[in-house]
Amino acid sequence: MIIAVDGPAAAGKGTIARALAKHFGYHFLDTGALYRMVGLAAIRAGGEPITTPAAIAAALSLDPSSFTDAELRTEKVGAAASIVAVIPEVRAALLDFQRSFARKPPGAVLDGRDIGTVVCPDAHAKLFVTASAEVRARRRQKELGSADYEAVLVDIKARDERDSKRATAPLVAAKDAVVLDTSEMDIAAAVKAAIAAVEARRVP
Ligand code: DC
Is-above-0.85 flag for pTM? Predict the structure, then answer.
């Protein structure tokens, strides 16, 4: 059983995907963390601006077990992830790991941008979690503490633009995805709606 959870930055997909994995007893993979690791490694190896060769080298030598670096969660590394994610060779290098993870029994939940369209087009259940850019910026600002709302909104919009307009595996809802707009929902309501959507698709 594979559950794909895609959507833009700060829409709540990570929280929802984790809750789904817990509810159904499945494995969970935050695929954005893989791109963040590549972005961070590329900065550390080659400096900024990130170069394509540094990003490809980082993706090819990635050790996904070193997931614990606190710096991965910063906005700077989120932006770096979105930059390296445009490079087709980087995406190709991360594909096998994601696909083997998805096949782990008894099931897996993967969250990202292209899980339902490219990584696991045959996923049994697909959710596209979204919310307005303004609501997402408010949530991200809260998470970051003191950050300036306008600056966070500009970052979110830049990330949406880059993730949606790239040529390889752009951010787009799969045709058979259930779209969940969480703009007006709290976490409990969003998780409840996500569980109901998956239940409706789940193989018995
Ligand atoms: O979900 P996140 O904010 O941690 O993702 C960081 C960036 O990584 C995102 O802006 C685009 C990229 N990404 C991607 O291209 N494909 C994925 N499956 C996951 C993330």
Answer: yes
